[in-house]
Amino acid sequence: MKVFIAFAGPRLKGNTAQLMNAFIDGMKSQKPDAEYIDGKVYQKKINYCRGCEMCKTTTGVCVQHDEMFDMYDEIFDSDVLIMAAPTYWFNISGQLKVFLDRLYGMKAGGMRNKALVYITTFGDVDEYASGAHNAVNSIKEISEYLSVPYCAVYASTGMGGVSKAALEKAYKQGAELAKSIKK
Ligand SMILES: Cc1cc2nc3c(=O)[nH]c(=O)nc-3n(C[C@H](O)[C@H](O)[C@H](O)COP(=O)(O)O)c2cc1C
C-alpha cells in the first residue's frame, strides 16, 4: 500500500497536523510496512490550474512543469491520497484548493485508483456553523463522481485544541481505512 500525504496547512505542528498524524498512526498500526510519502505540499510552489484543457485534449498531462508536476507520478501510484488542511472561511483552504485543482492535470486514471481522505480542523465549536461540512461534502462529491472510497476526518478546536477523543477517533478511522485496502 502506498499513501501520499498532501498536508496543505501552514502550521506543521498545528491542530490539523495533530489530527492528521493520529490518523496516520492508526494506518501504521495496521500497515506498518506501507509506503507513507510526505509530499511536503505545504512548502511547494504550485501554480494555479490554467483551465487550458491541454491535459485532456493534447498532452495527456499538465503542461505546467512546476513542483505539482513533479509530484504527479507518486500521487498517481498511490492507493490512498490524504489531503489535510484547516478550514478557512467555511471551506477548503486556498492552499489545498490549488493542489486539488491541479490534480485535474494528472494523467488519465490517476484519480480513479485510490481512496480519498480529507482531514480538517475548525475553530467553531459547532461543526455545521464552522462551515467544515462544505469542504467535507465537496470532497465527498468528488469521491462519488470518481466512484472511489472516501474517509472524512474532522474536529473542532474551539474548546482549546484537538481533543483526546477526536485524536482517538482519527486513529481508529486510520486503522479501519488501512485494513480496508487489500494491498
Ligand atoms: C484564514 C482563516 C480562516 C478561518 N475560517 C474558519 C471558519 O470558516 N470556520 C471555523 O470554524 N474556523 C475557521 N478558522 C479557524 C481554523 O480553522 C482553526 O483554528 C484550525 O484549527 C486551525 O488549524 P491549524 O492549527 O492546523 O492551522 C479560520 C482560521 C483562519 C486563519
Mind explaining what this structure looks like?
The chain is of the alpha/beta class. It has a single domain, classed as Flavodoxin domain (Rossmann fold, 3-Layer(aba) Sandwich), CATH 3.40.50. It has 6 helices and 5 strands; from the N terminus they run βαβααβαβαβα. The chain has a 5-stranded parallel beta sheet, sandwiched between helices. Strand 4, helix 5 and strand 5 form a beta-alpha-beta unit. The radius of gyration is 16 Å and the shape is globular. Flavin mononucleotide binds next to helix 1 and strand 4.
In CATH terms, what is the fold-level topology?
Answer: Rossmann fold
Could you tell me the strand content as a percent range?
Answer: 15-25%
Largest sheet: 5 strands, parallel
Global geometry = globular
Which features characterize this protein?
183 residues; alpha/beta; Rossmann fold; five-stranded parallel sheet; binds flavin mononucleotide
Itemize the secondary structure elements and their pairings.
Blueprint: E1 2-7, H1 15-30, E2 35-38, H2 54-57, H3 72-77, E3 80-84, H4 94-102, E4 115-122, H5 132-146, E5 150-156, H6 164-180
Parallel strand pairs: 1-2, 1-3, 3-4, 4-5
The structure holds flavin mononucleotide.
What is the gist of this entry?
This protein is an alpha/beta fold and 183 residues long.
